[in-house]
Write a structure and sequence with these properties.
- There is one protein chain.
- With 264 residues, the chain is α/β, with parallel strands linked by helices.
- The chain has 2 domains: 210 residues, Rossmann fold, CATH 3.40.50.720; 34 residues, no CATH class.
- It is 50% helix and 14% strand.
- Strand 1, helix 1 and strand 2 form a beta-alpha-beta unit.
- The chain is globular.
- The chain starts with 10 loop residues before the first strand and ends in a 7-residue tail after the last strand.
Length: 264
Amino acid sequence: MDKDRSMAGKVAIVTGAGPGVGRASALAMAADGADIALAARRIEPLEALAAEIAEATGRQVIAVPTDISDLASAAALSDTAAAELGRVDAVVNVATAGGARAAVADIDWDEYRHSFELNVIGTLEVSCRAAEHMKAAGGGSIVQISTLSTHSVPEKMAIYTSTKSAMHTASMVMARELGPHNIRVNIVTPGYITGDNLDRLWSNIAEQTGKTAQQVSDRAARAAALNRHVDPEDIAEAVLFLASERGRGVTGQEIIVDAGQVIG
């Protein structure tokens, strides 16, 4: 029990490494001692984030431009991380494609295919490739970021909800398959996460309802048991627990970090 359970000496990959959960998760793991491979499509903000995290933590942080909806790009990510940082111990898949809001009867199937390619195929390809490197390292952890809409199934969000649900189910199967290799697979599902995206949501609802954005936000917060929203750092703490040896006994689980939104 006195074994170091931090991420010191480990290497973690974060896809969708932009503002919010991606940044917070990468920063938390780097502060815990991990070297980080950041993956996203745009190189300039990716390099800026890598420099920010490296300066804040003293860890080695590399930027790997990646479009995980492209199978070859998704497949190359873990190999690049292992080649440049020496190994792969954890992967956190934050990258996601929401898809347009539409009733099932009105779905643009090309858009559905794109979301499926990113949320399911690309996410699983990154996970599987990373798992091969984790086997060589004696084990590891895969953390997928999901959405509460898989529980609430809101109208006109079938693209996002169904593709995330498919990713969720496949990840649980992976947990069974990879367990004998000491590789854990878990899911972190956020509630309403503070930040620009949530602010835009409240503003859009406010325009439709005649309320102020603050009133809309406050009403949603009151619906949660803790009467608040969650911050990216709240999600990052759950990610860190699962990615590190702190969560060594946890696999095939979904941790919902929503300030009690589901239970109200």
